[in-house]
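Chain A, query sequence.
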Amino acid sequence: MKILIVEDDRVLAKTIEQCIAPKYDSDIAYDGEEGIMYAKQGIYDLILLDLMLPIMNGYEVLQNIRASKNFTPVLILTAKDGLEDKLKGFDNGADDYITKPFERKELLARIEAILRRTNGNYTETNTISFKDLVLDLNNREVKVNDQEVILQGKQFDVLEYLITSKNTIITKDQIFDKIWGFNSETSTNVIEVYASGLRKELKKIGYDKYLKTIRGVGYIWNDKEF
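Chain A, predicted structure.
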């Protein structure tokens, strides 16, 4: 899973990144305009958004994101603890609000709570499922009726992204940016290699038919016949 951190305090942004690193990948935007640019890629599962940002403040960022029909969950991080500030954040489409300074455990708990609420595939044990296929996100294991499916490298991440975005066409660029990152020196051609390898493993358990290639665009995961 991938989180966007929009925070102009570079030290704090890096601290947050390290705080969530054991469980989540992340990107950092240091001003409101950059935050919008990153958010509109549509590759994030959650956005951590500061309010006091240069160029565009957090409220403006949130308004812009929601106006573009982007409903990625947003957790506001701010030193503003007044009721009016909180209500304004919720009115503009925030999902939750945490006041600085905060403890690492609280931040992680808030993140996990939002992800459980906003993604029906997730359970209390931090798994996602499709039919009898279950992905354990903590241990990075895949099983079908207790039979383990061995995935290599980032095949797990590709499968997780496709299942959590099921019935939606995901472009190769979106997969690359979410899993390898904007600054990766790897070519997008690597996606075809991983998709091919993933399909071979899924074929062993009869699930390759759910991974469909959209020629010239990307991939989609669903159980419909094309």
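Residues 128 and 158 are 13 Å apart (CA to CA). The first strand starts at residue 2 and ends at 6.
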